[in-house]
Design a protein that fits this description.
Order of helices and strands: HEEHEEEHHEH
Number of domains: 1
Number of helices: 5
Largest sheet: 6 strands, mixed
Number of strands: 6
Distance between the termini: 49 Å
């Protein structure tokens, strides 16, 4: 009986240690994301806040950062044969940053107007995430507009952009909002990339499902 009690006690201690490690890991990841989101919000406020020439009454803000599991080869998702996940010890987290812009307009805005804001957002946040070695699957830039009140709810639409297009914005002086609109529109039509032009905003679960 004494041996059994000792064994059970050791097992309980081992399991509690694993649980504690998982909690610490979870909290550490959440704290890291909060730190990144705060940093991005500060930079967006400086670059696109009131008085910056953006004509926005309030700066864009990070709505959330969606974490997605990816393999160490950079591929997102992980459903293996038979429904089992092929996860290795070197799994690297991939994220989808979601930035929201409140346009505060009654009518739907023009695409040229929207893509200029999207380009400004990407030029602000993409270098920060690159410097932190954050792996980005794509960016969702959400735009809200339309009447909003107790009886009427405004509309939310998104432009989803891959990090490769964000790289071009930063590296090619001849690549601007118009070129970004052209490439996002092309990517939205082929359906082979997460690129999307003016689609309804979506939940974190919908983003993860789309990338599996």
């Amino acid at each position: 009986m004494e041996v059994t009690a000792v064994v059970l006690g050791a097992v309980a201690l081992f399991l509690s240690g694993i649980s504690a490690a998982m909690v610490v890991r979870y909290r550490r990841g959440s704290r890291t994301q909060r730190t990144i989101a705060t940093d991005l919000d500060d930079r967006l406020a400086d670059a696109m806040g009131p008085g910056s020439g953006s004509h926005l009454e309030q700066p864009p803000s990070v709505r959330r950062i969606v974490s997605i599991e990816s393999n160490d080869d950079g591929k997102v998702g992980g459903g293996g044969e038979g429904g089992e996940d092929k996860k290795g010890e070197n799994d690297v987290p991939t994220v989808v940053p979601i930035v929201r812009i409140d346009l505060e307009t009654t009518d739907a805005p023009g695409m040229k107007f929207v893509l200029e804001y999207v380009a400004n957002v990407l030029e602000t946040v993409h270098p920060v995430l690159e410097s932190r070695d954050v792996r980005v699957a794509h960016y969702d830039v959400e735009c809200t507009f339309g009447p909003d009140g107790l009886l009427v709810e405004g509309e939310c639409r998104r432009v989803s952009v891959t990090p490769e297009l964000a790289d071009r914005l930063l590296e090619d002086d001849r690549y601007g909002a118009f070129e970004l609109w052209r490439d996002v529109k092309r990517g939205d039509r082929d359906g082979e990339t997460p690129t999307a032009l003016w689609e309804p905003c979506r939940s974190s679960a919908a983003i993860r499902t789309r990338l599996e």
